[in-house]
Structures are given as C-alpha cells and as structure tokens.
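@channel sequence for tomorrow's demo:
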Amino acid sequence: MAYHDTVSPISAALGAKCPRCGVGSLFRGYLTVVDRCDHCGLRLAENDSGDGPAVFMIFILGFLAVPFVLWIEARWAPAIWVHALAGGGLVFGLTAVLLRPIKAYMTALQFRYRRSEFERGAGDDDGT
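structure tokens (generated this afternoon):
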C-alpha cells in the first residue's frame, strides 16, 4: 500500500488519526499513543512525541494565564482564592482541551519531517 502526503498534520491532529493514512486512531485512552495504526500498520508508539507537547503547553498557558490573572488583580483586586479559582480553572481547562490535539499535531509533524524514523525496519505487514 503506497501512501502519499495527502493527510495534513492539522487534520490528523484535530481528528487524532494516524499521520500516514488519516484513518486509524492515534490514541488509546486520553494520551496513550497506540503501538500501531489499526488501519495501515504504522509504528506509532516508538516515535511518541514525549514531553514536547507539555513544554509547549507550559509556554502557551503561561503567556495566556499570567496576563489574565494580572488583569483580574488590576480590575477588581480580589482575594487570593479568586485568583486560584480563575487562574487555576483557566490553566486546567485549557490543558484538558489542548494537550491531546497538540500531542497529535507534534506526532504528525514528526511523521512528516522524520518519516524514516517511523518506518525504519517497520515491517508494516509482518506484525513485528
């Protein structure tokens, strides 16, 4: 089976699908990458994006949450527990929503630009 660059990394990420075929599921559970694509047999777990998505989330959420909390302080000067609820809720909510698509996007980008690492000795059809 020949696959071409028909699956965009963004569409693969938003659907949490295999970056090669765009059909098989990328995750088992919330963030656990499947061993192989159930449609095309691509080895996925060996090329997991690791902590990269979490690092990006730290920078993105820090960029968004700190100005939000400072704005709340400047506008209303609330008690510290209000900051904990507002800032904590923002950070936890955005993390829950964005971490999975960012991890899928990074996996898709790794596949697009480092394909040989995914398919090196893959034996896609022999089950190894």
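heads up for whoever presents: The longest strand covers residues 27-28.
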